[in-house]
């Protein structure tokens, strides 16, 4: 078996992997990226980037390549429900004031090209089959190359940026989340030939009963339309049948898509669960969906994959020569990601409940529809410039509660129950955020072997839901 050495191995070349590779190469490291795909390559993804995600593309040096695909700049965000519409311009993030929806074939290829230009070596059609261990430390990978030959590659750090079904996570025994929340929604989406030029700069969302639907104009003259009905559990029915039925029950989405023809098949992801997995250990790290995943209802996945992939690369680039400093840097990176993302994770779980708008949500829509500052805050949560706790925290909840009670949405009993539930949830989530800053992360059981070059133990593979649904 051919054996090579490098500074860092990155498994997976999409958002998190390319971002980490770019940061490491900028830091002067020799980086080899392995991916089973050949680019351009599609992946199951709803691929909307709010301005904060577009700002990450700019930080990585990939934005101009991505803009060349011709996706329109989405400068307006619109959300409608219960007869109210909230619409406004996105607050700027590092001068970026627009969202983008670019299909993954182009976006991922642009990231790979940028990684190569920066100095990373990207090897396509290479599938990792095993990890190399030395005294409980990951020291490399074994993989099958594009010619079918088995090879071994050694490095002080292996980064598993290989998605929810991460091979690296499985081989280090980190597939079991330490924090998880099943989604109450399924996800179905399709592309339509867009015939509505007046909507080409608007990222729109609608709520109708328990349904949620969106329309995001993208490259190729298309619009990506996603629906998220409640997840019924068990085996879902035919995807296209569920999708078309859900669209038909959201009147505003029907109007948005009128005169548009669906292109290609309906794609789906069901049985989703948001989670945090332990994402650092001796010689390994898990950025992107491999370590942390949120339901696509808030479209945060790609932004976080790129941001924390980049921050991981920046954190370790100068510490690869000392295992103690390296492990400390990777652990600090993991703790930072948890602190930064926990509030958005909690907010996402609330929107993923699969229920109709609740009284205080209706009051939020009503209030924001006539309040530019509140609209900016609402859009700022999606763009990660406003914490969800500021939008629905102690300073604002009493006013929303009073407004909901005065208007009696669904009856006083329903309003009172929702107020009590929101107050309870605010306390529980606040405690969780405080504890996350103080409590150590759960330990990964030590690797069974302590002999140099010994084979790793084989943890049982976690059964994961179908599909890869990235926001």
UniProtKB/TrEMBL annotation:
Domain of life: Bacteria
Pfam families, alphabetized: FAD_binding_3 (PF01494)
SUPFAM superfamilies from the UniProt entry: FAD/NAD(P)-binding domain
Sequence intervals crossing the membrane: none
Segments for region (Disordered): 440-471
Record-linked InterPro entries: FAD-bd, FAD/NAD-bd_sf, Geranylgeranyl_reductase
Domain FAD-binding, first and last residues per copy: 5-320
Name of the protein: NAD(P)/FAD-dependent oxidoreductase
């Amino acid at each position: 078996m051919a054996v090579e050495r490098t500074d860092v191995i990155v498994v997976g070349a999409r958002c998190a992997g390319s971002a980490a590779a770019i940061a490491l190469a900028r830091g002067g490291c020799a980086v080899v990226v392995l991916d089973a795909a050949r680019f351009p390559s599609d992946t199951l993804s709803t691929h909307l980037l709010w301005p904060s995600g577009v700002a990450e593309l700019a930080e990585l040096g990939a934005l101009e390549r991505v803009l060349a695909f011709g996706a329109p700049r989405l400068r307006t965000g619109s959300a409608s429900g219960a007869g109210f519409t909230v619409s406004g311009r996105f607050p700027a993030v590092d001068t970026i004031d627009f969202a983008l929806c670019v299909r993954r074939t182009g976006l991922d290829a642009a990231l790979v090209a940028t990684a190569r230009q920066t100095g990373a070596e990207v090897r396509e059609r290479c599938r990792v089959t095993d990890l190399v261990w030395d005294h409980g430390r990951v020291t490399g990978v074994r993989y099958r190359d594009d010619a079918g030959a088995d090879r071994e590659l050694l490095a002080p750090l292996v980064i598993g940026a290989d998605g929810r079904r991460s091979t690296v996570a499985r081989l280090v025994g980190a597939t079991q989340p330490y924090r998880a929340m099943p989604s109450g929604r399924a996800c179905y989406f399709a592309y339509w030939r867009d015939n509505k030029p007046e909507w080409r700069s608007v990222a729109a969302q609608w709520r109708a009963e328990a349904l949620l639907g969106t329309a995001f104009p993208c490259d190729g003259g298309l619009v990506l339309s996603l629906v998220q009905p409640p997840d019924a559990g068990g085996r879902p029915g035919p995807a296209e049948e569920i999708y078309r039925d859900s669209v038909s029950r959201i009147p505003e989405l029907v109007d948005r898509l009128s005169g548009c023809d669906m292109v290609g098949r309906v794609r789906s992801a069901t049985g989703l669960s948001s989670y945090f997995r332990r994402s650092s250990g001796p010689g390994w790290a898990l950025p992107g969906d491999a370590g942390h995943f949120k339901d696509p209802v808030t479209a945060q996945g790609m932004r976080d994959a790129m941001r924390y992939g980049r921050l991981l690369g920046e954190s370790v680039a100068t510490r690869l020569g000392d295992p103690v400093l390296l492990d400390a840097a990777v652990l600090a990176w993991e703790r930072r990601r948890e602190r930064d993302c926990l509030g958005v994770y909690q907010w996402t779980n609330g929107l993923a409940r699969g229920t109709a708008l609740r009284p205080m949500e209706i009051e939020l829509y009503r209030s924001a529809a006539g309040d530019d500052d509140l609209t900016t805050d609402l859009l700022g949560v999606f763009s990660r410039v406003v914490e969800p706790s500021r939008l629905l925290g102690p300073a604002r909840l009493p006013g929303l509660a009073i407004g909901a009670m005065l208007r009696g949405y669904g009856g006083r009993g329903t309003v009172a129950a929702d107020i009590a539930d929101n107050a309870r949830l605010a306390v529980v989530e606040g405690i969780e955020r405080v504890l996350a800053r103080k409590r150590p992360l759960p330990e990964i059981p030590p690797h069974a072997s302590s002999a140099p070059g010994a084979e790793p133990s084989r943890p049982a593979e976690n059964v994961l839901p179908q599909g890869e649904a990235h926001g």
